[in-house]
C-alpha cells in the first residue's frame, strides 16, 4: 500500500519546518497525533481463531448501492488445529445481522456478540479434519483504517471499493482477521446493478446477466491469499489491456479497469506496466500469478493498494505503479505474518521503486532515489519492528515502515555486495517454506544468512529492532613508512545512542593519495575504533562511505597529519600515573600495528587474588588508557598485569589512603 497523501503532506511539513515544529509543540505526541487526524482510528488488532487453519473463502455478495447494503453468504472452509474441536469463531463487525450459519443443509447454532460470530459445529472435529460453513449475513458495512468499504462516486457515477488492510476485512465479510492464515484459494462473486463492472482477484470466470437489472461477476483465484488482499472494486469501468510477453508465445493479460474519463490521460503510465513486470520477473522470478492476470482497478482513495492480481489505484505515476506491482511478490506472494513485520511488505515495495529506476534508467537514478528515501528515513522514530500494532498510523508510518525499511535493504546490499544481495532476494521470495506463505523478519534473516554465509545478527538487531542511525566523528592521519608507502590511520567515533549504543557496520573509506584512489573497507564494531592500512602515495583527502551505503550523519572529519608517533610498533605496558595514588590512577598500554588480539588487564594483590579486571576483550592496534579506581580497596602494594597475545608484562603500584 502506498498513501500518496501522507507522503505529500509530510514533505510539505518538513519543507516548512517551523510550522511543523510549532505544530509538534502544540501536540502532546507530535507526529502520532498528526497522523491520527488524517486517518480514521482502527479497531484494535484481532488475532483470529487460532484453533483453525482456513483453507478456502467464497464471498457471494449482493451489493445494493442505493441503500449501501451488503447481503451475502460467505463460505469458509477450515481445518481443525486441535482434537475434539466443538466450535470456532469468525470475525465480523456487529453492525451486520447474521441470519443463519449452515454446514451443508444443517443449521448451526451461533451467537454474534461484539465483533465475533461464535459457531458451534454439529459434531466435534479432530486435528487436520476439514469442515465448511456458510454464513448468511446482511447490513451496512462499517469503514475503518484507510476506508475498508466505501460507497463513493466519480463523475456522477457510483463507485464502490474495499481496502481491508490492516483490520478492515471483518468490516464487510466474516473471516479470520489475521494475515498469518492464508486461504489456499478463494472465489468472489459480486452481484450488483448492471451499471457496475465488478472486479476482484484472479480470473473472471463468468458475467451472468440475472434478468432483473443486475449482473453477477464470478472471480476465481486459485493461489494462496491473505484475507486482507481479497477485494472488490466496482463502477462503470472501461477495460484497457496490455500484454506481458514472458516467454516466446506466452503472454499474460495486464488489465486496467479505469474510470472512462481518466483512461486517456493515464495510458502512457499504464503502458509501462508490462516492462515493469518483466524487470521484476527477471529479478525475483516470474510474476507469481502468471496464470491469472495482473491489473489495476481505479478507486477513490488517493493511494494504491496491492490487492492480489489487481491493485486498487488512486493515481498512476510510475512510482506507485511499480510499488504496488512489487507487492505482488513482497506482500502478496510472501505476506508479513503479522503487522509487527510490515516492513517485509512496505520496505521491500518501496525499495523496489528504486530498483525499477535502476533497471530502467541506470545506477545513478537508483542512488538519487535512495538518497531521497534516506532523508525521509532520518525522520523515523522507534524501531522498524512495529511495537504498537493497534495503531494504523504506527503500522503505516511512511518514514519508518516504508523509507527506512527500504534503506535497510539498501544497506544490506552494501554489506553483502550486489550479486549475493540479489541472490538473497531471489532465494527469499522463492524459499519453499515461505513462498505463497507468510514470513517474519527472522525468516528473511535466515535466508540472508544461509545465502551469504554471514552472521547478520548484528545487522537485523540494530536496524530492525534498534532505533536511529549512527552519527560518526572521523579523525584520520598517516605516517611515512618508506619511499612512496604510507601507513594510513582512521579513528571512527560514534555518538551515544540508546538502542543500540553504537552501530556495527562495515564502513568504506576512499583514500585519495598522490598515486590515486584506494577504497578501503573496515569492520567497525566498537564505539571508538582505530584502523590502519598501508597505501601507496601520500594521502591527500578521504571520503567516508563514498557510495552512501549507510544511513548516517557524519558530524565531523578532522585530520591529524603528524601521526607517526601514534602507531605503536611494539607491545608496551607503562608505569601507572600517579603512583603512589589515592584512589584513582591511570594505566597506559600499547597494541602494535598489524594485530588484533585478545587483551587482558588485571589487578591483583600480594596474595595473588584478582581484585579488578580492567580489560577483557579483543582490541585493535593503538594506544590505550585505563583508569583504575581503588576506592573500595585498602592501602597496600598491588600488581597489574597486561596479557595480549604472546605478550605479558606485570608492574607494581602503591595505594596510599
Ligand atoms: Zn505498499
Structural description of this entry:
By secondary structure, the protein is of the alpha+beta class. It has 5 domains: 1-38, no CATH class; 52-236, tricorn interacting facor f3 domain (Immunoglobulin-like, Sandwich); 334-463, Neutral Protease Domain 2 (Neutral Protease, domain 2), CATH 1.10.390; 471-563, Sandwich (Immunoglobulin-like), CATH 2.60.40; 572-655, Immunoglobulin-like, CATH 2.60.40. It is 23% helix and 39% strand. The protein is built from 13 helices and 36 strands. An 8-stranded mixed sheet has the order 5-4-8-2-1-11-14-13, with no helix packed on it. Strands 16-17-18-20-19 form a 5-stranded mixed sheet. Strands 9-10-15-12 form a 4-stranded antiparallel sheet, with no helix packed on it. Strand 25 (505-513) and strand 26 (516-524) form a beta hairpin. Helix 7 runs antiparallel to helix 8 (363-377). The termini are far apart. The model is unreliable at 8-43 (pLDDT under 50). Bound molecules: zinc ion.
Question: Helices and strands in order, then pairings?
Answer:
Layout: H1 4-15, H2 17-26, H3 31-38, E1 52-64, E2 69-80, E3 85-91, E4 97-103, E5 106-108, E6 110-111, E7 116-125, E8 130-139, E9 149-154, E10 157-162, E11 185-193, E12 197-199, E13 203-209, E14 214-221, E15 233-235, E16 238-247, E17 250-258, H4 260-270, H5 273-284, E18 294-298, E19 304-305, E20 310-313, H6 318-327, E21 335-336, H7 343-361, H8 363-377, H9 392-395, H10 398-416, H11 418-429, E22 438-439, H12 441-452, H13 457-463, E23 471-482, E24 485-494, E25 505-513, E26 516-524, E27 528-536, E28 539-544, E29 553-562, E30 572-573, E31 584-591, E32 597-604, E33 610-619, E34 622-629, E35 636-644, E36 647-655
Parallel strand pairs: 1-11, 17-18, 18-20, 21-22, 23-29
Antiparallel strand pairs: 1-2, 2-8, 3-7, 4-5, 4-8, 6-7, 9-10, 10-15, 11-14, 12-15, 13-14, 16-17, 19-20, 23-24, 24-27, 25-26, 25-28, 30-31, 31-34, 32-33, 32-35, 35-36
Helix pairs in contact: 5-6, 6-7, 7-8, 7-10, 8-10, 10-11, 11-12
